[in-house]
Hints:
By secondary structure, the protein is mostly beta strands. It has helices at 47-51, 101-111, and strands at 5-10, 13-18, 24-28, 31-35, 40-43, 59-63, 66-69, 73-78, 84-88, 93-96.
Amino acid sequence: KYIRNIVLSEGNKTQSIIVSEILYFSANPPYINIHLESKKYLHNETLRSVSLKLKPEQFVRVHKSTIVNIKMVASFTTRLNGDYDLTMKNNVTLRLSRNFASDFKNQFNKTHHLTTK
């Protein structure tokens, strides 16, 4: 039901990227940017349409213009106004809007279990 790969065209090169390697998607109307660890791609789709194809337990909307891979979020810090700053595993900081905070926190807590060995 959910996609595992996205096929992207860049100039005359077409390639497939694995969805689980995506850090986040950001709006860049009428396109979206797909952010990987060290590269960014432009893709001709909307955030809404791509969000319907992604596993909801892995990809969470954090802002009207951003969807993150919850497994790529290293930490989040409150701004003391209802919003938060997310730090991704590549040290990029993204805004978590108060409108999406409760959904995000629920998914983050499900995904990031504390373990001791």
